[in-house]
Amino acid sequence: MRTASLDLLEKSELPLSQARAILQVLEEEMALSQENLATRADIDGVRADMAALLSATRAEMAALRSAIQADIAKLRSATQADIAELRLVLHADMGELRLSTKSEIQVFVAALRAEMLERFGRLEARFGQLEGRLTRWVFTCILGQTGVLAGLGWFLIAHYRR
Q1: Burial class (CB in 10 A: 0-12, 13-18, 19+), 22
Q2: DSSP 8-state secondary structure symbol assigned to residue 38
């Protein structure tokens, strides 16, 4: 307690015990309010803590960035290796497919040629039959025409002679 404050309260004709109680309450309140106020040292301490935290965070971010870049590089190389392997497998499969397809096409073409030759042979046989029928029909028509013309000629000669 300050004596000047105590003297001031005593001059105001307050009893000594009340003056001391008031002064004690005021000092406690002042101490509490002083505790809640931030001093320049407190602010500098917080600033230093924040700078250290920021520096640590930046270091962690840099480490994380380099780790991620390393992981991306590993993934890129693994992906390229997988693509190269897939390319080789696909080329091999395409070669096998090409050979099997080529042999299947050759078998199909051979079967198609054989069937076409068989059908062509049957068609030639039918044309031979049709040719024989057509020849008989043409000769029959010629004989019929000849008979009709002979009958017409006989009719004309028989009727004009008179």
Answers
A1: middle
A2: P
Distance spanning both ends of the chain, measured CA to CA: 185
146/142 Cα distance (integer angstroms):
6
**38 φ, ψ to 5°?**
-90, 135
How many angstroms separate the CA atoms of 87 and 94, rounded? 10
The model carries a pTM of 0.40
The dihedral built from the CA positions of residue 59, 65, 70 and 71, taken in this order, carries a sign that is: positive
Helix (H, G, I), strand (E, B) or coil at 88: helix
- % of the chain exceeding 90 in pLDDT: 54
Cα→Cα distances 42→37, 46, 82, Å = 9, 6, 58
Give tens-digit pLDDT for 1-41. 566 666 666 677 777 777 777 778 877 777 776 666 667 88
Residue 130 CA to residue 123 CA, distance in Å, equals 10
